[in-house]
Amino acid sequence: MDFLQQSFSVRFDYKVFFTTHLFSPENPAFGKFIEGEKKKDTPPKVFFVLDEGVVAHHPDLINGIRSYFKGFPSLQLVEEMIIPGGEQAKNDEALFHKIVAAVNTRKIDRHSYLVAIGGGSVLDLAGYAAAVSHRGIRHIRIPTTVLSQNDSGVGVKNGINYFKKKNFLGTFAPPVAVFNDFHFLTTLEEVDWRSGISEAIKVALIKDAPFFQWLVQNATLLAKRDMPAMQYLIKRCADLHMQHIRSGDPFEMGSARPLDFGHWSAHKLEQLAGFNIRHGEAVAIGIALDSVYSHLSGRLSREALDQILELHQVLGLGITHPLLEVSDDKSPLLLGLEEFREHLGGRLTITLLNDIGKGEEVHEMDSALIRKASEWLKDLSSR
Amino acid sequence: MDFLQQSFSVRFDYKVFFTTHLFSPENPAFGKFIEGEKKKDTPPKVFFVLDEGVVAHHPDLINGIRSYFKGFPSLQLVEEMIIPGGEQAKNDEALFHKIVAAVNTRKIDRHSYLVAIGGGSVLDLAGYAAAVSHRGIRHIRIPTTVLSQNDSGVGVKNGINYFKKKNFLGTFAPPVAVFNDFHFLTTLEEVDWRSGISEAIKVALIKDAPFFQWLVQNATLLAKRDMPAMQYLIKRCADLHMQHIRSGDPFEMGSARPLDFGHWSAHKLEQLAGFNIRHGEAVAIGIALDSVYSHLSGRLSREALDQILELHQVLGLGITHPLLEVSDDKSPLLLGLEEFREHLGGRLTITLLNDIGKGEEVHEMDSALIRKASEWLKDLSSR
């Protein structure tokens, strides 16, 4: 059959910056970044979308931003918008429409900037609105939680939940820059500080044994909210995550899998809990489950497993949840495995551990062994 | 400031096939294409979204598709969906939700195929739904009009209208394949056949003088609905459009402009007419206006201008519209220029003609001269 061939590559470049007090007058990097990108005669508009929770903990933030922009007369700050944070925000389509409507009324165009400040949910929601408005407004992310600074905020995905399904609508749309401001971490609730570490444990377990040993050695410091330790963790974890994106299939067009060790059961747990559990808490439990499964299926040594579960304990991370108990073949956890298979398009791919730092993709899991792993963890946690 | 650099390229490849009777049992290309892409153990699902108008003109189409897929047991045809076509479909957000809901209930995943059959509006709408569902379902386009086969359908954009603004929501998302089936053209209304030629005139005028001369020489044949002439036109125009995409900035991330000669006033006319005018009709008028402006501003010879306007006449294309008359500085046409400037993010870029086949980008247009061009065309058409 007669045809024309289309082939092209699209290059994406962005920096993930690490700083504190991004909008302090002594810290010109943010303003200079946008000034440096300027390609038009007119001052680019800058539209901030802020997480309600962040604004509550940092009441001077908005005024600080306004003062900061007075130092950059070549940039045009427009009226900001504050939206609720947390996973529930991603369930509320009205919030998506609210951001898109603001893009319209504030006349934000493709050369303007939509800057999102917040946890992963606000970044996902605002990033999606930015990605589809005018087929893509320039988007800057300022993640404010451990989880978003070390994982979701530095990647290329966005999305909202739909039909109660996580990220049912979304796109792959790299930001033009990410600014990780460590100062935001100082006001995090305890559970957000700790549970955000799960993604670092995840990536260390499947990719980087020395990083896992670093986590073990620094677990007490991390639990005590030592800031230099957390800064190292975030940068190392962000780096591993970014390496994975660029070395593989950034927009997941083929069969490549994201770094989702421990995530199949975590997704189901979040759904079962009505999203009233932090993603990081669910991932910690998912990691524990797949680590025990890796041991029970003869892949992972008992010694390695114990080290993982001990790290969870020192960091105050859960290892089991009543909603994941398996009583029969119709138990929600096992249905979650089937849903994950569907989500992947028919063929199951799960990462298990052959050793610390050594993930292996498998295409089958044994229900009886999943049940045994679940019971094993329940027994351990009730001891 | 400390930072990590992210850099990667994403490669996109797709073929635009030219055929007739795509779903005839003797034409296995479509089924073989999907079979050839198959990467999973399970049969990929194929979900058709069809333009109501196409189904009305081709009442055997759906049964034909069902029979055709019986010859491909390794593919899983799911229940199709029929949606209204035409620009009004892109104004109706409920249709977007309807497609996304069908993606959910039919369990269409990232390895499934959403195949859209229809005119440009149905392709834009279904393409947008495919692009954001699960962050991108594999999407195949089967354009059925001259305009969509030679222009929009072979490109990388999708979108819906919002706040009465054309393509306010959308993405850049290349299809995995395009199948141009010439048989669909046989049932087009006269206005759709003719007005679709506008995009070929446009690209010829700014890029390809020999193609323009071919259009002049074949105008009578084209007006008589000669199929071989139209097939040549579509393939040549699609090729020029695809070359422009790959040689420039496919996702328009910089300041690169799409091939939009004659489009600034066309967009305004479509809006003023409540979208009750074909895009191709509006583009023909926009081309006439910018050609006269090019002549009046001393760029284009009178001889070349006459050739353009004569081509319009032979093809039965309009050159003026009452809604574009300029009476004062607040006339809608002049406001349209301002809106186009905003749409581009502050700096106006308009393509004018220095000669046939030679477009030039300018950053200013003179209101008095636009008015003169508009009056010039009004006088000419009333003669």
From TrEMBL, chains A, B:
Record key words, sorted: Amino-acid biosynthesis, Aromatic amino acid biosynthesis, Lyase, NAD
Q: Where is the 3-dehydroquinate synthase N-terminal domain?
A: 81-193
Stored InterPro entries: Dehydroquinate_synthase, DHQS/DOIS_N, DHQS_C
Domain 3-dehydroquinate synthase C-terminal, by residue range, is: 196-322
Keyword flag Cell cycle: no
Q: Which GO terms describe its molecular function?
A: 3-dehydroquinate synthase activity
Which class of enzymes does this protein belong to? lyase
Q: Which cofactor does it need?
A: NAD(+)
Whether NAD counts among this entry's keywords is yes
Known EC number? 4.2.3.4
Q: Which GO terms describe its biological process?
A: amino acid biosynthetic process; aromatic amino acid family biosynthetic process
Superkingdom, natural source: Bacteria
Q: Which PANTHER family match?
A: 3-DEHYDROQUINATE SYNTHASE, 3-DEHYDROQUINATE SYNTHASE, CHLOROPLASTIC
Looking up NCBIfam families in the UniProt record yields: PRK06203.1
Q: What is this protein called?
A: 3-dehydroquinate synthase
Q: Which species is listed as the source? A: Chryseosolibacter histidini
- Lineage of the species this protein comes from: Bacteria, Pseudomonadati, Bacteroidota, Cytophagia, Cytophagales
